[in-house]
Amino acid sequence: MKTKIIVNYLIGFIISVLISITALSLIAKLTVFNKDYIINLLEKENYFEKIYNEILEEMESDIMPSGFTNDIIKDTFTKDEVKEDIKTFIDNVYQGNKTTLDKELLKDKIKKNIDDFLLKSNLKITDKNGVNTFINDLVKDYQDEVCLYSYTDGLINTFYKIYHIINKVVIVLLIVLFVLIFLAKLLFKYNYLSSSILASGLIILFIRIFIYERIDADYLLVITENFSNILTLIINTIGNYLLSIGIGLVVFGVITTCQVFLKKCQNKR
Predict the structure, then answer these.
(1) Residues 204, 212: Cα–Cα separation, whole Å
(2) In this structure, what DSSP letter does residue 102 have?
(3) Which of 144, 207, 202, 261 is nearest to 12 (CA)?
(4) What phi and psi values does residue 75 have, to the nearest 5 degrees?
(5) Is the pTM of this model over 0.70?
């Protein structure tokens, strides 16, 4: 009898953990590892336009001490080009590839504008290497903003591996969960599923409280301010999912546990 009780408690704990891990995997699949979700979030938060403006500001900051005017970057790139390059960067991240943007056309446009500026100002440049370096710096401003200064390059392989298997992980977890519940009921007369659901909800709520008490997502600063704002929104969304799913499982677990208890009481009568 004691052995059966211990086995049932152990099975209940394993089922609770599996439900929690499955829920966490689904949340990850719906947010971080969902490219459409990321693209839609960037659209909603005007990320593409913000990066376009940020590139202009960075370039203008570099131009200021050079003696040139901001006209040298006028009409050299568009918001749509920035948007497409950012999407290319995101596509590459989800495909496990580093991004190298071909911006020769941007270089040529800046060089032409510099030549036009020199011609209008009746000036000549003797240090052509210096001008080429200056142009490369401006193009680098563009590439750095679009590709997050290459800080994500070291994480791409790991991210891709998780992204590649996340669907399989969710399916495997669900299959294992259902098989375990079926075998537990068949072999050990396990009848505490409602308690396991309740416990899984409490586990998820604990994880949510434990993590979010230690992370002040609203004041995160990672790589750039624009990226940090997006990261904050993703973290808050995940937190909301954890809270909703945790509360939902707890409520469902409590209701079903009460129903089982009332049914037992009625049977005893």
Answers:
(1) 12
(2) -
(3) 202
(4) 60, 25
(5) yes
